[in-house]
Amino acid sequence: MKKRIFALLIAMALLTVSVCALAEPPAKPEGTPPAGQGGNPPDMPTGNPPDGMGTPPDGMGNPPDGMGGPGGQSSAPSEYAAVNTLTEDATLTGAIESTGTDENAVHVAAGETTIEDAQISRVSNDSTGGDSASFYGVGAAVLTTGGSATVRNSAISTDAKGGAGVFAYGDGIVYVADSTIETVQDTSGGIHVAGGGTLYASNLTVTTQGESSAAIRSDRGGGLLVADGGSYTSNGVGSPAVYVTADITVHNAQLTANGSEALCLEGLNAVRLYDCTLSGNMADLDQNDNTWNVILYQSMSGDSQVGKGSFEMTGGTLIANNGGIFYTTNTESEFVLSNVTIQAAADSEYFLRCTGNSNQRGWGTAGANGADCVFTGIAQQMQGNVIWDSISQLDFYMTGSTLTGAVVDDETYAGNGGDGYCNLYIDKDSTWIVTGDSTVSSLSCEGTIRDADGNTVTVKGTDSTIYIEGTSAYTITADSYSDTADMSGAPAESSWSDYEVTRPDNL
User: Fold this and answer.
1) How far is the C-alpha of 297 from the C-alpha of 294, rounded, in Å?
2) Is 46 within a domain?
3) How confident is the model at residue 75 (pLDDT cuts 50, 70, 90)?
4) What pTM, to 2 d.p., does this model score?
5) Domain membership flag for residue 78
6) Residue 57 placed within a domain
7) Across-strand partners of 320?
8) 381 has pLDDT over 80
9) What's the domain count of the chain?
10) Is residue 74 part of a domain?
């Protein structure tokens, strides 16, 4: 994707306050976003879902930890209640207060609006939140459904159910910079896109307190969100720092979830993190069969189109305060990890888990809800076990990387089993330090395999063929073995410059 450079024009109107020079936000970027990501909302899938990924039982389709909010309005509202409804160019400054039920403080329906040096407050005790807030921005402090809004040097706060800070929906475009956003109640994300909306953020300080209130949030219909710099902190249960049902790119930001997994991605969507610090602290919950920090999955709730989810992290730090690191289940997924410093929890359960699940919220059909995953480590230090099962497919690539751990076939959630596999590809500059007996389908290694004491590890076939006679206490069992590794299936890493939006000088 080419680097987008945006120019600014001069806004010409005023609403209730004085005229000032403002930048006209550009139209949505030209070109086609990645398949199923950004732009207009994707079509809902038709026909029957893939085997094992059926519709969950009634009331069991919510994303992890309640993300997505309770059921409610399923279609876009015919109109929005708002303190300020803008349909032509305007400028807003100063104090703006909203106290109405399910009301927006500012709703930009058309034209170009600049909000600067403003204090926007939204407080309501009787707002409902739910799907109308998550999907369409009802009750958000600042909502854009058409035209564009430029927000700068402002403070936005909400204390109402469904009170997102800044929300872009449909044809709406938002540019927000050098501002603070604080939300208190449930279903109140910090910055939020849905229904194909577009949002660009720069140097924000965002804090959320409620459940289902990710600091960077998206929902049904997706959209495009690019954030550069700033701090994004969520404190509620079921409130990751980043919740992904859109195309999201973040650069040089602090992303902290104090009561949830660090990042959650559902379905046919993508997230890219460049030089970020990502931290999670998910509690051990009875409704889950394990605990994680980054999850790629499919709930089949209808909030995201079925397809391959993509997670990429380059540089920066990933901090896990509890549970395993990466978990994928009931979906097709792709991970690219490059030169990331990983701080695992003291009781970390795994580095990567690629298996079926028995989640109480019904993520697919038990015994047939595995994952189809491609995982690539590039110049990456990885520590912990890789867990897979026979109803999943895992291709694990190591390029100039080190894995310290065992590769374990765990059939706990595989029901009657399947034809899945785990293929491990190790290039000449990579090392696998084996910490326990391991099982893989195929092992292709041009690099080094040893234990922590430097001993050669035995590699034997399932038919008892000895491929490598080692001196270690550990054994790797493989259906097949090769001393060459075809790395062509490993996806390449991208760079921030591929997605960067240059901030205009006067934004």
Assistant:
1) 10
2) no
3) confident
4) 0.87
5) no
6) no
7) 280
8) yes
9) 1
10) no
